[in-house]
User: Fold this.
Amino acid sequence: MFMKILCRSSSTSKGFILVSVLISVTLLLTSATAFSWYAKNEIKRAEAGSFIARSRSVAEIACLDASKKIAKDKNGYDSRSEPLYAYNGLIKSKIDEFDLEVNIEPLDDKIPINGILLPDRVTLRSEYEVAWEKIWEYVGFPWLSAVVIDFIDADSSQKLQGGERETSVNRELTDLAELKLINEIDDGVLWGTKDIPGGLSRYLTIYGKEKVNINTASPEVLAIMDERLDIAQARSFAAMRMIYPIKSLDDLKKIPNIPHDVIIKLSNVISFESSYFRLKINVSYGDEKERNFRIILKRENDLCSVVRWEE
Assistant:
């Protein structure tokens, strides 16, 4: 009897030991698998971090090279008809094992919201009065034309039909999105909806001084600058400037269907060169890794500086 109990006890002990061993092995395998998974993820994370850092360095080199090309462009105009700024023009290069594609776009192509006021930073330039009213009619808030002037001007006095509000910044805008501090303006009004294509951003920009480059402005922008211009005339002009870019007022006067008195009226707010440029840089490594950068450059005194960097 005692021997039977002993045998049973021994068998039970062996069973417990076997189960314990199996559990331990399972735990070890699970831990090893988890560690392996963690290690692989950490390696991937480190590689991704390394690629981001290295691609950013490559983009900085490409940005510097593009800045030099822009600064050297002294032909008196900036147009998409130039090879350097062509719509499909890509500057391709290779740095170490990275492939680069750079597209340069001259801006100053919309109404410069920070340049619509006279140097007193209070009075709307008369040349922009028509365009300013049309923009707010387009987005469905005509009464905001005066309100927004009060929002960005340098004083806190309310204008006729305007409205100083607690949210008024009374300074130049650093981003067009600051207009959303005005209750009536949301993302749809700012960036566009089905009923308001492009929204305010279709016509307004912070990347400009007080003038619009008529070599780069869209037909829609050109058409709102004077009541005597229509979209058909603007589109005809846009097609013609791709063949004959405008370098002076004399060149502009040679363009048919644009009244000379319109040119005279707008002469103080139109230019032929750009002060701001957008770089679109694609950095790729083999067939699997790539990174895109959008950079805004400001050209001033033959030098270009970065004013915005997105990636």
User: Anything to note?
Assistant: Residues 105 and 232 are 24 Å apart (CA to CA). The mean pLDDT is 89. The first helix runs from residue 2 to 72.
